[in-house]
Amino acid sequence: MDKKQFLQYSWKPDSCNLPRFDGVNFLGKLKGKKIMFVGDSLSLNMWESLACMVQASVPNSKTTYVRRDPLSFDYGVTLYMYRTPYLVDIVRETVGAVLNLGSINGGNAWKGMDLLIFNTWHWWTHKGQSQAWDYIRDGSEVYEDMDRLVAFNKGLTTWANWVDNNVDPNITKVFFQGISPTHYEGREWNQPNKNCNGELEPLSGPTYPAGAPPAAAVVNKVLGTMKNPVYLLDITTLSQLRKDAHPSTYGGLSGNDCSHWCLPGLPDTWNHLLYAALFM
C-alpha cells in the first residue's frame, strides 16, 4: 500500500483559483498578531497543519513551543490552541458533570486575540462511555439527555451571543471552522457495510451522496442571526469527498478513526481556505 496515495489529491474550486500558501507572506502580514484555535480535536488537526505549513515556509526561523503554551515564531506571530469540545462549559454540580448550554465562562481566555477560529460538533454526538457529561442544563432545567441537534443549537447560540457581546470586529476577525464530517457509514456514499478503513481514493463529483450533515444547517442558521461578522470556512462538502484521508488506512493503530485526518493532508486545504479568506 502506498502510504502517500492520499497526498496525490488536492481540492480546487470551479470558479476561481486558490492562492498558493505563502508562509512568509502569512507571517509578514500577521506580524505581531495572536491567533487562537478554539474547539475540539478537529481544531487541533487544523492548528497542527497550520503550524507545519508555516514552519515549512520559514525553516530557519526561530520557533518556540512549550507544552500547554502557544507556538511562537520569530515574526512575532503566536498560534494558540484552546481545547474545549463544546465551546460551552461542563460544570460540576451535585448530580455530576453537567453540560451547561448557557454557560461560557471559558471565553475569558479567548479575549485579546487578533484572529479566532472556532469549531465544535464532533463531541455533541458522543454517547455512553465517550460522553463527557452526565446531564444537560438548559436554563433552570436539568435533563438526562435531549435531542443532540437541539442541544447543539442552544449551545452554539450561547457562543454566538458571547461573540456578539465580547468581540470587537474592528480588532478581532472571527472564523467558524465548519463541520468536519466522519466516514463510519459507507451507506452515505452508497457502499453499505464499509467505512473509511482501507479506502484509497476520494469520491468524485461536486456533491456528497448523503448530502450535508444536519449540524451544518444549525451552524448556518446561528451564524445568520449574529450581529458581528463571522466568516464560515465551509469545509464540509470538500471534506466529505475525502473518505480516503483518515488515519485508519495509514495509521497502523487498532480500531477505526474515521473522524480525524492525516497530516499532511486534508487540513492543509482548510488552511488554504483560511489563507485565501484572509488575504484575497
TrEMBL record:
- Tell me where on the tree of life, at the top rank, the source sits: Eukaryota
- What would be one Pfam family of this protein? PC-Esterase
Q: Give all residue intervals belonging to the Trichome birefringence-like C-terminal domain.
A: 18-276
Question: Which family does the similarity line name?
Answer: Belongs to the PC-esterase family. TBL subfamily.
GO CC terms on record? Golgi apparatus
InterPro entries the record matches: TBL, TBL_C
What are this entry's molecular-function GO terms?
O-acetyltransferase activity
| UniProt KW keywords | Membrane, Transmembrane
Put simply, this protein is called Transmembrane protein
Organism annotation: Gossypium arboreum (Tree cotton)
